[in-house]
Amino acid sequence: MADELIIEPREISAMLERGEKFLLLDCREPWEFEAAHIQGATLIPMRQIPQKLEAIPKDQPVVVYCHAGMRSFDVASWLKQQGVNALSMSGGIDRWSAEIDPTVPRY
User: Fold this and answer.
1) 44, 63, 66, 87: which one is catalytic?
2) Does any domain span residue 25?
3) Is 66 a catalytic residue?
4) How many domains are contained in the chain?
5) Is 105 part of a structural domain of the chain?
6) CA atoms within 13 A on the CB side of 59
7) Which range marks the domain in which residue 43 is found?
8) What predicted TM-score, i.e. pTM, was given to this entire model?
């Protein structure tokens, strides 16, 4: 089941390039978002996800990311249980910075 929750950064990059409709959800803390984020991402810190569930669409994919992939995996798992088509980006924003967009700062 774990593998079906994971999406690779290159797949997300391709989705963005194709203009696919999905929510890119950053589940890190606000200070982390300020330090580095992916253009177009929506910030909802992990601890706020349950209270803001109604703001998360169920009619389109949701790709969750964090710093290294642990928090986003937990969030994607929980969202899946709530009926959301959620995926977790493997390696988080750190991997995104290393492999996709080096202009995004690493921290």
Assistant:
1) 66
2) yes
3) yes
4) 1
5) no
6) 2
7) 3-99
8) 0.95
